[in-house]
Automatic annotation (TrEMBL):
Taxonomic source organism: Leptospira ryugenii
Presence of the UniProt keyword Cell inner membrane in the record: no
GO BP term, pick one: glycogen catabolic process
Protein name: Alpha-1,4 glucan phosphorylase
Pfam families, sorted: Phosphorylase
EC identifiers of the protein: 2.4.1.1
InterPro entries: Glycg_phsphrylas, Glyco_trans_35, Pyridoxal_P_attach_site
Function: Phosphorylase is an important allosteric enzyme in carbohydrate metabolism. Enzymes from different sources differ in their regulatory mechanisms and in their natural substrates. However, all known phosphorylases share catalytic and structural properties.
Sections of the chain in a coiled coil: none
Keywords associated with the record: Carbohydrate metabolism, Glycogen metabolism, Glycosyltransferase, Pyridoxal phosphate, Transferase
PROSITE patterns, per the entry: PHOSPHORYLASE
GO cellular component: cytoplasm
Presence of keyword Glycosyltransferase: yes
Length: 839
């Protein structure tokens, strides 16, 4: 299939050419025998499916070899528990990590197609909401690349995060059946199934040895079936896996009902059981939704622990050395019920003493916190636990009683502080604080940026910090350069590779060497050319997705992330309105052309976030159709933000908006992705922005606004947003435009809640920061006109991004928390390394 004159052939050894012929044969076999097509019936999507199965063969070969290596060396393993894995598209990433991208690209050209066209047939695996799930995906890539024996555990939701469409400016949620056409690279493990219990009651008895024993008799049993997604490391033979559980009914249907003609009742139990893995984040505004969410959490951890414990027992014959061989990382509080579940297994099923079981449990679990907002810390009604997981409630009460007795004996906490650290939140309706359970049951607790890790010890966990300061540490988040540079920005990757070679793919600190070329005219010209190519591509995407024509030479200013009031998308659009007013009042004003892009989804039940999306779209309708504005200002909302869309937006952006209220964002990772792709950052001193400032230097980043201590001080003395309105007449007029229906002439009053929230509450201090934000945006607009200086800042941002690799983060977890090795792995037999041909 590869043409004889292909330039790729000249780069391959004879052995590699033989591998290529083998690859082509595998592909042809899958196209004919797996997909069932011939040259007369083949379609483009069949090419994608056959390619998926071909790559799967490579992955399974290395997966089996990796498993064999682990069995022989018997290293300690780490298991990453997360209810979210935002994997995006997997096939392109696998081709790059396996070193097959260029070869496969040439092979596909033999069909008259481009590989990029074929890969478009893959659906994003949106099994997560945002940063937390995408972080988990980056971590899996880094673990495999560093040869860490690490595996992910989660749920294989039938429907991922909803597809977002915009109708009349409003978000409308549509189901995301991401696997409707099958997942060719997935490995279904039909032989790995576990029973998971719910409801029922507990029995207590005294054994013959005088020991109190507890039995949980569940009233409902659901089966957890395993599906594996192989995770290949870059330029290594290591392939780990992400194991996702899907719920199956323990009975296909009730034969008695069926025989009596009641088919619906016959299959009802099956349908209810399988709802557990039906949808990511069921709407938890109802009691039924809350119950389903807690079911999902227990279902995932119970299945995962059974899997881990069974394999450990088979290999070791005992659980006594479990902590020496197993580390479990809890990605936020969602899997923290695993602490109670492991205690149940050890105490009830293995007959361990409470003290020995607790000692082992706390050595195994570690907990990553992702929020400093008290309202975001997960709690559950005791009554729900009592009904759904009665034995676990008893265990949690026992954990809490013993812990509080220990805490009181330490004599360092006041009665109020003792109440703060209790797992049980007292009140009219008692609740279980899952974050408190996670802290108590883990040997290490980490934040995800230096500022965040400091804040959790002085705010939400300050009383815990008094009890055991040694538990708390920081692990600043990172991103994988394989996905967020090599895959998403091949042109920039190629330019960097020409100067530095390929080592930066696995050692991002190598980018520091780009500083030597920051004054190199030829290199800067190439850098500008790459950015222009990416901006042109983004302009075409915007036109095809929204119908809006933008000037690709304008300052492309991007804010893409989950919609939440603390992330302050509203501050951004307020300034857009202010600039629009200035142009209308003085049509001859000189304005640096700017395209402001938003992307992101709001939780279905989050009214205010959805209203902000509506405002952005309504403002865009006015701004983009006003001839006085022309191409000087464009406002774009790109619908259905997802991983693959981010891969197109980020390389084409000049400016990254990271403008959360100081002290509210745990870390952020989109800030790192933009930095890696040469965009400059405008942001508050929040989350990882603090460390980005330290790395890149204050002259190469745009920091504005109140700092965290100033935010706390302002709120403490009594923040009055009206004071800022009275001091800023332009801001006052902007808000009046919103209140007086300028952007909603046929929907009077629709945006009044936004006006009222800002004027009378303004919880996230938008009005307090508006003047500083407006001022620094003016400076950015001026700086952008100096292309030479802007390009140098862009190069320095990339050169100094090395710290923010997820490889660095995983090394720190492995060495300091998990105590797992970075193993030596043999180089892959088929080793082509970096993509050889420029995309």
């Amino acid at each position: 299939m590869i043409q004889e004159n292909s330039r790729l052939l000249g780069l391959l050894s004879e052995e590699q050419k033989a591998d290529l012929i083998s690859l082509e044969k595998q592909f042809a076999h899958h196209l004919e025998y797996t997909i069932g097509k011939n040259k007369y019936t083949v379609k483009n999507e069949d090419i994608y499916k056959a390619l998926g199965h071909t790559v799967r063969d490579f992955l399974i070969d290395r997966l089996n070899l990796t498993d064999e290596r682990y069995r022989k060396t018997n290293p300690k393993k780490v298991y990453y528990f997360s209810l979210e894995f935002l994997m995006g598209k997997t096939l392109s990433n696998a081709l790059i990590n396996l070193g097959l991208y260029d070869i496969v690209s040439e092979m596909i050209k033999g069909f008259g197609l481009e590989l990029a066209e074929v890969l478009e047939f893959e659906m994003d695996a949106g099994l997560g909401n945002g940063g937390l799930g995408r972080l988990a995906a980056c971590f899996l890539d880094s673990m495999a690349t560093l040869n860490v024996p690490g595996f992910g555990y989660g749920i294989r939701y039938d429907y991922g995060i909803f597809n977002q469409i915009i109708a009349n400016g409003q978000q409308v949620e549509m189901p995301d059946h991401w696997d409707a056409d099958g997942v060719p690279y997935e490995v279904i493990r039909a032989d790995i199934t576990y029973s998971i219990g719910f409801y029922g009651y507990t029995e207590t008895k005294i054994s013959g040895r005088g020991r109190t024993e507890h039995d949980w008799i569940p009233a409902e049993t659901v089966l957890a079936a395993a599906h594996d997604c192989p995770i290949p490391g870059f330029n290594t033979s290591t392939v780990n896996y992400l194991r996702l559980w899907t719920a199956k009914s323990s009975e296909e249907f009730n034969l008695d009902y069926f025989n009596h003609g009641d088919y619906m009742r016959a299959v009802q139990d099956k349908s209810i059981s399988e709802n557990i893995s039906k949808v990511l984040y069921p709407n938890d505004t109802t009691e039924q939704g809350k119950e389903l969410r807690l079911k999902q959490q227990y279902f995932m951890v119970a299945a995962s622990l059974q899997d881990i414990l069974l394999r450990h027992k088979q290999a070791e014959g005992t659980y006594k050395n479990l902590a020496e061989k197993v580390a479990i990382q809890l990605n936020d509080t969602h899997p923290s019920i695993g602490i109670a579940e492991l205690m149940r297994v050890l105490v009830d099923q293995e007959n361990w003493s409470w003290e020995d079981a607790w000692d082992l449990t706390t050595k195994i679990f570690a907990y990553t916190n992702h929020t400093v907002l008290p309202e975001a810390l997960e709690t559950w009604k005791v009554s729900l636990f009592e009904r759904l997981l009665p034995r676990h409630l008893e265990i949690i009460y026992e954990i809490n009683f013993r812990f509080l007795e220990w805490a009181k004996a330490k004599n360092v906490l006041s009665p109020d502080e003792i109440s703060e650290v209790s797992v049980i939140q007292e009140g009219a309706e008692k609740r279980i604080r899952m974050a408190n359970l996670a802290v108590i049951g883990s040997h290490q607790v980490n934040g995800v940026a230096a500022l965040h890790s400091e804040l959790i010890t002085t705010t939400i966990f300050k009383s815990f910090y008094k009890l055991f300061p040694e538990k708390f540490n920081n692990k600043t988040n990172g991103i994988t350069p394989r996905r967020w540079l090599i895959q998403s920005n091949p042109s920039l990757s190629y330019l960097i590779q020409k100067k530095l070679g390929p080592k930066f793919a696995t050692n991002l600190s190598e980018l520091k060497n780009l500083e030597a070329f920051v004054k190199d005219k030829e290199f800067k010209a190439d850098w500008i050319k790459v950015k222009k190519t990416n901006k042109d591509r983004l302009a075409k995407l915007i036109k095809s997705e929204t119908g809006i024509s933008i000037d690709p030479n304008s300052l492309i200013d991007t804010q893409i992330k989950r919609f939440h009031e603390y992330k302050r998308q509203l501050l951004n659009v307020l300034r857009v309105i202010a600039v629009y007013r200035r142009i209308k009042e003085n049509p001859n004003i000189t304005v640096t052309p700017r395209t402001v892009i938003f992307g992101g989804k709001a939780a279905p039940g989050y009214y205010m976030a959805k209203l902000i999306i509506k405002l952005i779209n309504n403002v865009a309708q006015v701004v983009n159709h006003d001839p006085d504005v022309a191409d000087r200002l464009k406002l774009v909302f790109l619908p259905n933000y997802r991983v693959s869309l981010a891969e197109s937006i980020i390389p084409g952006s000049n400016l990254s908006e990271q403008i959360s209220t100081a002290g509210t964002e745990a870390s952020g990772t989109s800030n790192m992705k933009f930095m890696l792709n040469g965009a400059l950052t405008v942001g508050t001193l929040d989350g990882a922005n603090v460390e980005m400032l330290e790395e890149v230097g204050e002259e190469n980043i745009y920091i504005f606004g109140l700092k965290t201590p100033e935010v706390f001080a302002l709120k403490e003395k009594g923040y009055r947003p009206q004071d800022y309105l009275e001091a800023n007449s332009e801001l006052k007029r902007v808000l009046l435009m919103i209140r007086e229906n300028f952007f909603s002439p046929s929907e009077h009053g629709i945006f009044n809640p936004i006006y009222d929230s800002l004027v009378y509450q303004d919880s996230y201090l938008l009005l307090a920061d508006f003047a500083a934000y407006d001022s620094i945006q003016d400076r950015i607009a001026s700086d952008f006109l100096n292309e030479d200086s802007w390009t140098e800042k862009s190069i320095l941002n990339v050169a100094r991004v090395g710290k923010f690799s997820s490889d660095r983060t995983i090394r720190e977890y492995a060495e300091q928390i998990w105590k797992v090795p970075l193993l030596e792995a043999p180089s892959p037999k088929t080793k082509y390394g970096f993509p050889l041909v420029q995309s």
